[in-house]
Write a structure and sequence with these properties.
It holds the Pfam family LysR_substrate. Keywords: DNA-binding, Transcription, Transcription regulation. Belongs to the LysR transcriptional regulatory family. This is LysR substrate-binding domain-containing protein. By secondary structure, the protein is an alpha/beta fold. The chain has three domains: 81 residues, Winged helix-like DNA-binding domain superfamily/Winged helix DNA-binding domain (Arc Repressor Mutant, subunit A); 93 residues, Periplasmic binding protein-like II (D-Maltodextrin-Binding Protein, domain 2, 3-Layer(aba) Sandwich), CATH 3.40.190; 102 residues, D-Maltodextrin-Binding Protein, domain 2. Helices cover 40% and strands 21% of the residues. The chain is built from nine helices and ten strands. Helix 1 crosses helix 3 and helix 1 crosses helix 4. The longest helix is centred in the N-terminal third of the chain and has 25 residues. The radius of gyration is 31 Å and the shape is elongated.
Amino acid sequence: MRRYIPSSTALKCFEASVRHLSFTRAAQELHLTQSAVSRQIRNLEEFLSRDLFIRLNKRLVLTSTGAAYYKEVVPLLDSMENASLRMLHREDEKTTLTISALPTFASYWLMPKLAAFEKAHPRFQIKVRSLDDAAKIDPESIDIILHYGGDHWPRAVSHHLLSERVVAVCAPSLLEGLELTGLEPKDVVDFPMLHLSSRINAWPDWMVAQDLESGSFAGPSFAHFHMLLEAAKHGMGIAILPTIIAGQALAAGDLIAPFGDSVETPHEYLLSYPADKADLEQVVTFRDWLLKHSDIM
């Protein structure tokens, strides 16, 4: 069936001419000549058998018919443009890899690795989302999640990614004037203790690992690891941080760890994916690559 639709060029010339009320300025915007725009408008008027513009005292004036047509045409042009943009940005399901990861873990551990993966496998389009609650994850839209703890994602295949090690850290300014080499794990009780609100056992577990008796753990509490890290860097107290998060600040000298070496916790980081995606090329490729490189900090 032949559709009774004018040319897209004529419609674009009409829309631009209405906005500018000038064929000349419309032509400049569309990179056409003034005569070409004028010809397209004339063709459109012949197609519709209606006048869309009139000349009044050398000014271009939109007719009532033109105004009514413009009101109906613009939403259609917008819709066509949006549909085309969506198609241009549409993801190929065969090459898109959508990863959901804990925000801090992704920032400090995953991101430094993704560039190497992308270089090794450029055909995959990587998409990283924040993992705030594994229970809310839609397995239809997520290929892989990187998460913490022993709770596996329901109806998923899970792999051990790495064990967690934590270390007591603080800013050099917190210990200014003290002899660092003489400090021991038990000396932490002389300083403010910083806490992560979601890990209330961090300090008690660290104390047990150091063969120390638990006591008072009063001190500021923070909602996210990034906040805890920044609080420690600014000298607010001592924090128990995973080595994968504290590593950069320790290497840069923003933090120091004078209260003993890192200790391993009972927790782990896992790589999981829905069982029905176990054979997807992008899932298999990323899984194998990341597990191979998981011990490279």
